[in-house]
Amino acid sequence: MSRKVLTSPYIVWGAAFIILPLFMVIYYGCTGSDGNFTLSNITAMADPVHYKAFWNSVWIAMASTMICLVISYPLAYILSKGKHRGSGVVIMLFVLPMWINFLLRVLALQVILSKTGILNAILGFFGLPLQKLMYTKGAVLIGMVYDYIPFMILPIYNALCKIDKDVIEAAHDLGASARVTFQKIIIPLSMPGVISGIIMVFIPSISEFVVADILGGSKVLLFGNVIDQEFNVANNWNLGSGLSIVLMIFIFISMAIMNRHASEEGDNMLW
Fold first, then answer.
1. pLDDT at residue 260 is higher than 80
2. Buried b / exposed e across 3-30, counting CB within 10 Å, b at 16+?
3. Directed axis angle between helix 137-148 and helix 187-206, to 10°?
4. What is the rounded distance in angstroms from the CA atom of residue 54 to the CA atom of residue 40?
5. pLDDT tens across 80-89, in order?
6. Rounded to whole angstroms, how far apart are CA atoms 4 and 16?
7. For the whole model, what pTM was predicted?
8. What is the C-alpha separation between 208 and 216, in angstroms, rounded?
9. Backbone angles phi, psi at 31, to 5 degrees
10. Which of 12, 120, 137, 245 has the smallest number of CB atoms closer than 10 Å to its CB?
11. Angle at alpha carbon of residue 133, lines to 130 and 135, rounded to 5°
């Protein structure tokens, strides 16, 4: 009884702010303005504008995830070695921006990447050609990597720190080189952290619209921007909900594939 009493606030919270909104999205997405059942809001995904915006989101989300992984894994591996006194300081530097408001961080990037911003001022000082980064996919990609890279570093760093040092020493005692140890032991044992990092970066990236709205302007249209415009500009909750359902289905399928891959990695490690 005491457990039920303690969990009741979480049940109420989940029902009010997770389950109920989800049912509202499903209801609006499967009905028209007249309240009758229809799938036209979901099949509107085939519209060229929606289709292009969706695959733009997928491409940028995959690119930002891969860049975060390429940057994070070597850094997390070096920091997990525990031989550097500044390891904790470096981790703190990556976590510190998360304490600042998300919108302020994006606006700060706008100041840096704009035509008369800090980056071009530095390039101009050294006589290098100026760069036009604002309102491009490159600017959106930089913004996503900057905002979501802590979510990639921390899971990988935690997974690497949990690897038993005795296992690595045993591999060296058995004659394994540093390269073989890294490929056969460290990478497989760190895969749960890698999968967690990929999920934590890819899922919010594919539904992102604030970064694209500020750094991409009207020249970069992502699927999140389309949904946002349907809700807040066109006031078409039915179409916005239908497109949201498509995005949720894609996210669920992606998570299922990633979780299955993670479980297969765990089974392979057991064998």
1. no
2. eeeeeeeeeeeeeeeeeeeeeebeebbb
3. 130
4. 17
5. 886 556 677 7
6. 18
7. 0.88
8. 12
9. -130, 160
10. 12
11. 140
